[in-house]
Amino acid sequence: MTKTIVFKFGGASVKDASALKNFAEILRNRLRRNMVIVVSAMGKTTNALEAILKLKIDQKDYSSNSANLKDFHLDICKELFPPEHRIFALLENQFLALEKRLQGELTKENYDEFYDAVISVGELLSSKIVMEFLCLNDMVVLWRDAREIIATNSDFRFAKINWEKTRERCKYQLIPNLEKFPVVTQGFIGADEFGKTTTLGREGSDFTAAILASCLGASAVTIWKDVPGVLNADPKKFENTTLFSELDYKQAAEMTYYGASVIHPKTIKPLANSRIPLFVKSFLNPEANGTKIHSLESFEPIPTLILKENQVLVSFKVTDFTFIEESHIHRVYEELRSLKLRVNMLQISAISISLVMDSQPYHFEKLLERLKGLFEIRYNEGLELFTILHPEKDSITPLLDGYDVLLEQSTRNTIQFVRRKK
Ligand SMILES: Nc1ncnc2c1ncn2[C@@H]1O[C@H](COP(=O)(O)OP(=O)(O)O)[C@@H](O)[C@H]1O
Ligand SMILES: N[C@@H](CC(=O)OP(=O)(O)O)C(=O)O
Q1: What's the complex ipTM?
Q2: Same domain, residue pair 203 and 333
Q3: Site to substitute for ligand 2 among 126, 188, 261, 267, most atoms within 8 A of C-beta
Q4: Residue nearest to atom 5 of ligand 2 (CA)
Q5: What is the model's pTM?
Q6: In the chain, count of helices (H) and strands (E)?
Q7: How far is the CA of 12 from the centre of ligand 1 (A)?
Q8: Which of 217, 110, 201 minimizes the C-alpha distance to 161?
Q9: Same-domain check for residues 350 and 213
């Protein structure tokens, strides 16, 4: 039996009508049975849905935002489909369901569950459009709801995979489909044991591709991006970048850990465990080789720059002339865990704990509220966390030109700066 391959197309590859036409052309000669096509929401749809939720939480009017989102999808479909095509009824239904969901009560208690139910609509919409567009162009594919395959716990917004159940569903439900047709499904979403929609963490569609590849015993995963492959820095932020033609799983995992957003951090592990190669290729130049991530005997460390924007630096200072001890750290981490806030950098001094994390205003405010009685808290927003892997000595100073450094930390192979533009 031919082994399955998994293709993953992110938001940028399906961001408008011409991107979708290019997407279909990539598949035209590559489509085959035993192929899973994982798609993310179109363009910046997930951000747009988050903005709607923010307005709802602030009890502001979100009607023009949801109308814009609907128009965005409709306009794309008007360019791609004849006017009588059933995609228009499908869209209508999906947006009605979204409206209905948004009218429900949103409280602090049900926020995460509500979030997943709303945010998942982006992937449901895009996968339907993609499936219908491929079929319209004589490429017959099946649509499967990822929530029937990807089994998770009920940790809404950051759901954990139930690997056993997911593996079983892949074997008994997905493989029989794949033996007949290629399958289109959604990245990023799953469902808990009660059938409630969950999500795997922002940008989690790469992870979905890796989960399915691992559970299906796939021979390869290809993620299609708007860059030539994995580079030694984000080409949108740095000049003179170098393409890695290949990377060891460990190198790729390290880069994603520090925030190289080209691959979701959870993607590498399931692939490395099953020795499944991951190709990162450009949807703008599909014939080019891109980057192959697999097991390498040896590799040269190459200086690599990683920038995480929109960071918050917060310090918790003890107020009673004692020193920081384990119980303080434990308490802070307990709150971080319960609020699902991930720490990107940690520094502990005699009297304070300093943390750097992604800005998440709603949850961050809660953190401050919960810990304000125990610590004197100070924070700075709008910062960047700049990490250099395998730095070359003389190259660092110019990279900090025009910035104030608020915090610095280094190990043998890594140096990190929390910086702010002067
Ligand atoms: N080291 C890197 N190499 C290549 N691209 C990078 C790197 N670090 C960050 N990026 C960014 O990752 C983007 C692709 O990832 P992403 O936007 O998540 O794609 P998608 O949402 O389409 O899957 C690129 O456009 C690039 O700006
Ligand atoms: N749409 C989701 C999931 C995702 O992975 O998207 P992308 O593949 O475009 O990064 C998000 O934006 O978080």
Answers
A1: 0.98
A2: no
A3: 188
A4: 203
A5: 0.94
A6: 14, 16
A7: 10
A8: 201
A9: no
